[in-house]
Amino acid sequence: MRCLVVDDEAFMRTLITRILGGLGARDVRACEDGQAALVVVGDGVDVVLCDLNMPGMDGIEFLRHLAGMNYDGAVVLISGEDERVLQTAKTLAQAHELRVLGAVAKPVTPAALGTLLKDATRPTTRRAGPRAPIDPVAVEELREAIASDQLTVFFQPKARVSDRVVVGVESLVRWRHPERGLVPPVAFVGVAEEAGLIDAMTDVVFRQAVAQGGRWRARGLDLKVAVNISVDSLGRYDLPDTLVGIAADAGLPPSQIMLEVTESRLMADIKSPLEVLTRLRMKGVGLSIDDFGTGHSSLEQLRRIPFTELKIDRAFVHGAARDKAARAILESNASLAQSLGMTTVAEGAEDQADVTLVAALGIDLIQGHFFAKPMPAEDFDDWLADWRG
Ligand SMILES: [Mg+2]
C-alpha cells in the first residue's frame, strides 16, 4: 500500500508516518504542502492522508485538484478542527467523487487510522459521469478511428472586426463514424485524453489542418490556421520541431500557425509545457490562450507563457450586451489583452448585439455562429465567396 501524508507540520508528518509503518504500510511518503503532494500523487498513490488546515493550498483546495487529476485511490481527512468542519470536508470530497475512507480528528491514534485503512485497498467502485473508468470498447473504437482516417477537420472562420476580412480559421475535429454519423469532439476528446490517445489525435488534426492551410496558401489565400492543443501534449519535448517540420512539409510557415492552448486540468509539472510553448513561440508559432476566464489559473498563465492571442470565452460574449457581469468581464479581459499587446478574439458571437458590443470594445477578431459555423474545407470556399460578396 503506497501512502502519502500531506501535513504542514513536521511533527505530524513524522507521527503519522510512524503509525502507518506500524500498521504495515511499506511505502510512505510525506509532503508539507498540496502542490508538492500533487506531483507525488502523479507517481501513483493508494491512500492520501491529508491535513485540512495548511497554509498555501489548503486541504479543501487540494481535494479539488486531486479530483481534477482523476485520482482513484482513497482519501483520509485529518484535522484539528471540530467534527462539523471535518464532516463538511468529507461531504465535499465525496461530492468530488473521491473515495473517502473517513475523517480523523487530531490527535491521530493508531487505532483510529487502523480501522479506516482496512478498507483502503478495496477496488475502486465504478464512478458515474465523465470520470467513469473508460470503456475499453470506446478506446479501441477511437484508436481504430484514428488509424483508419475517420477523424476529419472542420474549419470555423475568424474575421477581423474592423473590416470583416477573414484572417484565420480554427480547426475543429469531428469523427465521421461509420454508424453514428458525425460525432462531436465533446463525445470523444475526454476518452482520448484518458486513454493516452490525445497525442495521436492532435497529430492527425494538425497534419490535416496544416495540409489544408498549405493548399489555401498555394492559391494565395493567407489564413492563419489554429489548432487546439491539450496541455497533456505539452510534455513532449520534440513537439516544437515536429510541428514546425510537419507544417513546413505542407508549405505553411510557422507564422501562419496558431496553437490554442486550454488548461483542462491542473498542470502538476509546468516545466515542460513552459519550455515547449516558449520554444514554439521562438520558432514563430502564434500561441493563443483559449477559453480565457474559465480555466484554473488563466491570469497566472498569462504572466508566465508568451501568448500572442487571447480568446475570450463565449460565456462572456454571447448576451453580454444584456448581462452586466458578462459585459464587465468581456471588457476587462479585452483591455487586459490589449495592454499586453495581444490579439483579442471574441468567441461565440451569435447575434448582432454581440457583434456591435465586440466592435465597440475594440476587440480584434470575432468567431461565432453569427458569421459561420464550423464547416468542411470543401464548403469553406463557397462560404468565403459569398462572404466577400
Ligand atoms: Mg479553441
UniProtKB/TrEMBL annotation:
Domain spans labelled Response regulatory: 2-121
Keyword match Cytoplasm: no
Domain of life: Bacteria
Residues modified to 4-aspartylphosphate: 51
Pfam families from the UniProt entry: EAL, Response_reg
SMART domains membership: EAL, REC
EAL domain: residues covered: 135-388
InterPro entries: CheY-like_superfamily (IPR011006), Cyclic-di-GMP_PDE-like (IPR050706), EAL_dom (IPR001633), EAL_sf (IPR035919), Sig_transdc_resp-reg_receiver (IPR001789)
Name of this chain's protein: EAL domain-containing protein
Organism: Roseospira navarrensis
